[in-house]
Amino acid sequence: MINIDIKKPLFGVEGVMNLDINIDINKNEFIIISGNSGSGKTTLLRCLSGLEECSGKIKVNNILWQDETNKIKVQKRDIGFVFQSDALFMNMNVLNNLLYVNNDKNLALRLLDMTNMNSFQKTMPSNLSGGQKQRVSICRALMKKPNILLLDEPFSALDNDIKSKLYTELLQIHNEFNLTTIMVSHDLNEIYTLASRHIKLYNGIIIKDENLAELLNNIKSDDQILLDAKILKIINKNNQEYAIVNINNKFINIKIKNKKYKLGENLKIISDELFI
Amino acid sequence: MIELITNLDFTPFLLSFKLASITTIILFVLCLPLAWYLANTKSKLKPYIETITALPLVLPPSVLGFYILISLSSNSPFGSYLDEVFDIQLAFTFNGLVIASIFYSLPFMVQPLQNGFESLNKNMIESSYIAGKSVLTTIFKVALPNIKPALLTALVITFAHTIGEFGVVLMVGGSIEGQTKVASIAIYELSEGMDYTNAHIYSAFMLIISFIVLLSVYMFNAKEKQKLAGLK
Amino acid sequence: MFKLFILILISFKLSASTITVALASNITYAIPELKKEFNKIYPNINIRTIISGSGKLTAQIKHNAPYDIFMSANMKYPENLYKSKYAISKPKIYAKGKLALLSFKQYDFIDIKKLLLSKKIKKIAIANPTLAPYGKASIEFLQNIKLYDNIKNKIIYAQSISQTLLYSLNATDIGIVALSSLKSDKLKDYKINKNFVEINPKYYTAISQGIVLLKRAKNNKDANSFYEFILSKKAKKIFKNYGYDI
User: Fold this and answer.
1) What is the predicted pLDDT for the residue at C12?
2) Scanning B73, B164, B189, C227, which has the fewest C-beta atoms within 10 Å of its C-beta?
3) Range(s) for CATH 3.40.190.10 in chain C?
4) For the whole model, what pTM was predicted?
């Protein structure tokens, strides 16, 4: 159980805002924090981990991490942190990056296995791709066997195909290690794929706090689906006009019935039947 | 020719070498925490401290030497305290030269280290703290290994700068054979006394040694850059 | 505006001629009075002085430095210049330098040997004998009073007689300096037998200081005038007042 009640002035482009967060986090929750740039998401994570100063109280499992008089330093907090990028120790190979945190070789190999990075043990970080680096970062964060895992937009710089693989690996780790995970992201996919709870910040305060498990259980099936499409080309075949249309990067040839359409026009296409 | 070289008195060179080595080691120990502090602090004092550490770069060596002489001589409050209580004299001694060299070469150790630390990725350093490691461990196991070129530059430039020290030693040294008559002073006196032959030999020797040392540093730096970039 | 500029230029040409004299640093104190006396006789001759160590000046002259006359702290350098034809007159002695023991602290100078041997004196400043004629004489003095071997570990070497003065006044317990420096205004508070004492000339070879006319001064009447003046009775009187032997 994490109790956060903190305040901190934030200096943004538009002047000073106040980060003011009062929230309770339960064990094993997978929380994604989203919000506009400068809303305080990263600052919140950094204050929780002790990398930044803030005023207020932080209590984790009945241990006081911070109050008005005391502050437990970073090194003593039970957390793992995955940064957005470039945080691996460039002077050590993959395995040593992990062993630096904790000399438990078995744990290291297990984590590398879970993230499919086993064959990269002796590789130097400069020889890894972005996705591989983030996998190693996640493994390294877990070497301390923390109860809490913090991630700051860990996948934002990666390609979509890599992302889906990493989501699976991260979820597996979250479950196997019984973690409480707090991740900053503004990718909707990530929110709905990974999170059990979604918190949205705006200018330093929480404006939305939804339990996704409930949300997903309550989604009604739409009778109709609305798709966004763009007309690429209009061709004429046997006196019938067809529009070549781009729906989600797939190209479809559709007969035009009545109206006149222009190239590049944006449409909404309604379908009332869907099959998987 | 060989005779000329074997007749050379190598004492000044050994003295220069000894002075440069001791100064470099002491400066490294002193400046490592200072450079780390400057690289990481947001204090308003930072520009003031940086100015003070950079002063020896700008002050004429003779000015620096003059002030050090005045402060260290047994006639100054500090100097007479050392003299009366500990029977230590600093002016005109090798130890006095070490102190003078520490001031003289300070910026050459601080600045490359500070620049190196500042160029490090903050997240990488923070990852070490989150892993539970102390600042000291982080400096030695993560920070320093990742700024090898800057570290080497700091050590070598400090060393080389101290070897070439002249104006300060001229003031503070007293040109005592085997104690404060370093190579730069020896060469100066040879040329002043119009013993040009030996002045040439000594100078050529210094030039060759300096060239070799600097070349090795730059070659090492190039190799390190290749390694970091990851030769597959 | 331009006319004014030309006028000024011409007036300079008409009013005075300038000669450049290279001086050993020990003459610093005597030169203002020498110039004053000289200008009483020759008001239109402007003396420009370059003051440095004799060795340095000699090296500069050998590289054709624009000096007309050289007044050295010894005879060796002028003789060298005359031999190598950089000087056009045979070196003549214009004064003989003398040594003094000087400290900014106060001591009992009655028994010099005892003083120098005592524990109170930890550092003695002397001009480097290979570079400065006064330094050579200083070592000679110490050897002749049979002190050199016992105190040589207390000696620190200054690069010039001027630096010896600097050390004696700021950093060392005592030093051997040019007696002429004691005539400087800045040292007028230093008392004889308390801060300084003249060293008996019998202990060292007289520091004969030589003057030569240089190549550049050939056919220069004004340079000749100053040269003759330095060797004149009037100048000798001034040198005597400034602690030189003649």
Assistant:
1) 57
2) B164
3) 2-96+208-241, 99-198
4) 0.80
